[in-house]
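Lab meeting, item 3. Inverse folding demo.
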C-alpha cells in the first residue's frame, strides 16, 4: 500500500499527490465521468495542479485518493469540503474515475471511510452533499448509508439537453451507524 491514511477491506484512501494530476485530467474530461460532477469546463493539467497545491494550505478541505488494494490502482477521489467550526459541518464529494471499478463497492466503501473519519476523528455534527436526480447509483449509495433528502434545487442543472434537479442530502452524527 502506498501511504494509506484510511483503510478498508477492498481499498484505501491516501493523500492526493501531484502524480495524480494526469489521472484527474483524464477522468474529469471523460464525458461519462463528468456527467455526475459539478464541473462542465475542460480540465487542464494547470488547473488540476493548482487544485492539488491548494489542498494542503488550510484545514477546511480533506481530499483523498481512492485506491483499490489489489494492484494499488488509483481509481478515484473523495473529500470533505468547507469543514467549518463551530457548526461542525462539511460537504462530501466523491468521484470514481476508473469506470472499470464502477458498481463494485469501492465508492460505497470510500464514502463509509470518509464518514467514519468525519464523525469520528473530526467530530463533525453534519455532513451534506449534492447529488443530481439523474444519478440513481449515487442516490442509492447515499440512502443506504443513512443520508436523507433535505431539499431540492429544482431544475438547477442543464444536462442531457434538459434542466434537472440537484438533491441536497445530509446525515447527522447521531444517524451514522458507522
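The presenter then showed the designed sequence:
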Amino acid at each position: 500500500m502506498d501511504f494509506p491514511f484510511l483503510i478498508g477491506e477492498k481499498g484505501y484512501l491516501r493523500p492526493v499527490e501531484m502524480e495524480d494530476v494526469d489521472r484527474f485530467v483524464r477522468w474529469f474530461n471523460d464525458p461519462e465521468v463528468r456527467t455526475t460532477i459539478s464541473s462542465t469546463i475542460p480540465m487542464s493539467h494547470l488547473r488540476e495542479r493548482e487544485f492539488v497545491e491548494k489542498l494542503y494550505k488550510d484545514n477546511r478541505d480533506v481530499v483523498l485518493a481512492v485506491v483499490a488494494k489489489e494492484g494499488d490502482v488509483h481509481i478515484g477521489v473523495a473529500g470533505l469540503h468547507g469543514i467549518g467550526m463551530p457548526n461542525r459541518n462539511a460537504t462530501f464529494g466523491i468521484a470514481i474515475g476508473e469506470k472499470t471499478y464502477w458498481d463494485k463497492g469501492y465508492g460505497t466503501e470510500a464514502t463509509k471511510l470518509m464518514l467514519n473519519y468525519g464523525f469520528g476523528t473530526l467530530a463533525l455534527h453534519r455532513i451534506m452533499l449534492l447529488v443530481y436526480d439523474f444519478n440513481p447509483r449515487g442516490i442509492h449509495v447515499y440512502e443506504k448509508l443513512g443520508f436523507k433528502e433535505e431539499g431540492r434545487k429544482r431544475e438547477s442543472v442543464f444536462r442531457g439537453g434538459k434542466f434537472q434537479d440537484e438533491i441536497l442530502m445530509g446525515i447527522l452524527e447521531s444517524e451514522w451507524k458507522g
